[in-house]
Task: inverse folding
């Protein structure tokens, strides 16, 4: 069925609504003026953003956290999806589902209360490690979802054939199933990286003084008042994460 | 056979138990304890924190959150359904159009919220443009009000509705539409009597997802509402930071959690949530 003219016209408006705010932000990040009036092209605000010590430190912290959380969540999530594929467990999938729909603010304060409670005995402060663990927690369910979708179309007889030919269960998993899951796993990993890199609500609750992430720095800059450097750094983030998402999307549709 | 599966599931069981279920249990135990003098919690056991939810101040915030979420969901539905219909009828370009919906959704939520601050603030793009065109003299108060929060919620969660509705429309048997047309139904009649009822699973799943996301919103009312139009999420955060009333914050967040679970229950039974 073809689209009517009205529906197509509406689609243009709807896509404009979805994309214009970010495009406008990107355009004005190249504005030479400090004010919101176009006065000419310049990369002043990018230079200012790169020179900003807080933004630099935040970026490094966010990268460390996102990489660590991605590695851990991808491994845990892939193994979990595989385990559930062998035999499903209503308990585990319901709990994962619940973790996926729990409001971020609730998960954030629950983790904060948990850390405070446990650290009374261990005498540990909040820091990068607490943020990483929190991110692994809320990212794993994404990995399970993506990898489980991949496994749904997977023929179990391949593993059986490998085992008939003398492979152990582990070998069948590692050398037959896992290689075929790689595109799905990579796609999930990229998704998790962007989610972790971008998280603000949970992170700000469980981060310590020495673990300010990039979204936390941007948040406090945005609260303080207008600063064109935020436009510049925002544009860079959206572009970088957008590229990762496109790659992830490609990987998911491949094969 | 069982051994490998057990190995595979152990890390996630440890994680779900240690970092999800135990924290939730702690929150529950805090919610029935009393407030300590410097934050934290103390004996004795009490249901007082739940009773405080009936306080008109908090009740009005609860009702406001439900109202905002309902309005935002309705707007998302009205905006999302036609777009999902458009995408499902776009032939080979469907995947491109779908990616164009998902792309801004997956990139930074914080930046997307900030983009609206940039547009709506007194010295923002909309006010500056209107002023330079001479249409207004004073900047319009666009930011820090319920309207700004609503835009932020709709903008933030619109794709949550488009994607499930699209999935429903994709599954729709095209021959039913031909049958409707053969029987003399006009496009609008076919839309109302064939397409709409058959896309109900997607509409239902999407609406619930948008509604619960809005209900738990924290960042949007915080940045775009400017402290005056706070929602439940902001109260929860405040109890755990500035107000230092952990038991009450815990009670509030459990009520929020309960809302979310009750709303999701029918979806899970119908397997329309379809996430796992």
Result:
């Amino acid at each position: 069925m073809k689209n009517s003219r009205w529906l197509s016209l509406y689609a243009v408006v709807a896509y404009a609504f979805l994309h214009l705010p970010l495009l406008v932000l990107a355009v004005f990040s190249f504005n030479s003026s400090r004010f919101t009036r176009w006065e000419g092209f310049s990369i002043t605000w990018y230079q200012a953003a790169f020179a900003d010590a807080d933004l630099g430190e935040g970026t490094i912290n966010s990268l460390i956290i996102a990489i660590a959380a991605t590695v851990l969540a991808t491994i845990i999530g892939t193994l979990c999806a595989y385990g559930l594929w062998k035999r499903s467990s209503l308990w585990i999938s319901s709990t994962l589902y619940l973790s996926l729909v729990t409001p971020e603010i609730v998960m954030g304060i629950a983790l904060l209360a948990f850390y405070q409670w446990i650290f009374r005995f261990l005498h540990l402060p909040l820091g990068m490690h607490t943020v990483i663990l929190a991110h692994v927690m809320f990212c794993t369910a994404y990995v399970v979802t993506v990898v489980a979708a991949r496994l749904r179309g997977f023929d179990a007889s391949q593993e059986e054939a490998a085992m008939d030919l003398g492979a152990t269960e582990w070998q069948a998993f590692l050398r037959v199933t896992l290689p075929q899951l790689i595109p799905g796993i990579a796609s999930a990993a990229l998704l998790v990286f962007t989610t972790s890199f971008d998280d603000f609500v949970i992170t700000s609750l469980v981060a310590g003084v020495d673990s300010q992430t990039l979204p936390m720095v941007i948040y406090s800059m945005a609260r303080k008042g207008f600063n064109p450097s935020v436009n510049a750094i925002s544009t860079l983030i959206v572009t970088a994460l957008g590229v990762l998402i496109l790659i992830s999307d490609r990987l998911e549709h491949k094969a | 056979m069982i051994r490998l599966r057990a190995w595979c599931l152990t890390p996630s069981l440890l994680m779900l138990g240690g970092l999800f279920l135990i924290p939730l249990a702690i929150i529950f135990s805090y919610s029935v304890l009393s407030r300590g003098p410097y934050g934290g919690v103390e004996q004795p056991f009490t249901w007082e924190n739940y009773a405080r939810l009936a306080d008109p101040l908090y009740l009005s915030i609860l009702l406001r959150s439900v109202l905002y979420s309902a309005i935002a969901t309705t707007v998302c539905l009205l905006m999302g359904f036609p777009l999902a219909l458009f995408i499902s009828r776009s032939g080979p370009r469907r995947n491109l159009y779908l990616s164009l919906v998902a792309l801004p959704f997956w990139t930074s939520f914080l930046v997307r919220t900030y983009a609206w601050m940039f547009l709506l603030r007194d010295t923002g793009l909309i006010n500056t443009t209107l002023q330079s065109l001479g249409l207004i003299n004073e900047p319009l108060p666009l930011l820090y009000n319920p309207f700004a929060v609503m835009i932020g919620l709709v903008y933030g969660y619109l794709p949550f509705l488009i994607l499930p509705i699209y999935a429903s429309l994709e599954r729709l048997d095209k021959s039913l539409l031909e049958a409707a047309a053969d029987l003399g139904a006009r496009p609008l009649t076919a839309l109302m009597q064939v397409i709409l009822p058959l896309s109900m699973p997607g509409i239902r799943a999407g609406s619930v997802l948008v509604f619960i996301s809005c209900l738990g919103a924290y960042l949007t009312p915080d940045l775009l509402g400017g402290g005056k139009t706070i929602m439940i999420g902001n109260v929860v955060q405040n109890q755990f930071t500035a107000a230092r009333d952990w038991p009450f914050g815990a009670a509030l967040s459990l009520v929020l959690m309960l809302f979310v679970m009750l709303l999701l229950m029918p979806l899970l039974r119908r397997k329309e949530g379809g996430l796992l």
Notes: Residues 272-276 of chain B have pLDDT under 50 and may be disordered. Chain B touches chain A through 89 residues (CB under 8 Å). Residues 40 and 246 of chain B are 6 Å apart (CA to CA). The first strand of chain B starts at residue 34 and ends at 35.
